[in-house]
Amino acid sequence: MALVLAIVVLVAAALLEAAYLWGPLGDDPKVSAARPVVISEAAQRSVVDTAAQAAVTFSGRSYETYDEQVDAATATMTDAFAEEFRQTTDQVRDDWIEQQTIVVAELEAQAVITASDKQVEALVFLTQFIERKGAQTAVTPYRLKITMVETEQGWLVSDVESA
To answer: Is 12 among the domain residues?
Structure first.
């Protein structure tokens, strides 16, 4: 009798565990003002690091390797955002090369704004050093809100806004 009771208790516990993990009792976390980050700290840090490195890649560029750097930048982006980025960079390409512009972006800080298993918003602080032929180097600090989305290719930039 005790064995039957123990088996019933174990089966009931297993069913409750299954209902909690995969069923109606499961925690389906949603990003909200009260809970802006619903993924593990390790996961959100990894995605924010990826966003920060992408920001350095797409914010820096040299007239000497302009096209290659644009290609490298678009590799960090979704197809839709890469197309938008290319349109913008194509518009300034000739002036960039003519003025022998070099922009170096240095990462200052990064943070998570919101994070779920499908989308992460990161805040990235950069300093840009801008050199142009015949001009003094300009130093510009700025910050970006970068939206990253999970794709089959991994986490990619889907949007960038000045913050």
So the answer is: no
Which residues in the chain show pLDDT less than 50? none
- Asked if residues 59 and 136 have their Cβ atoms less than 8 Å apart, the reply is no
Predicted pLDDT at 40: 87
The CATH number that applies at residue 68 is 3.10.450.230
Number of continuous H segments (helices) and E segments (strands) in the chain? 4, 5
What local confidence, expressed as pLDDT, does residue 108 receive? 97
Instruction: Report d(CA 97, CA 94) in Å as an integer.
Output: 5
Which uninterrupted H or E stretch holds 149?
Answer: strand 138-151
With beta carbons less than 8 A apart as the criterion, state whether 131 and 102 touch: yes
Closest by Cα among 160, 163, 156 to 125:
163
Separation of alpha carbons 153 and 74, rounded Å: 13
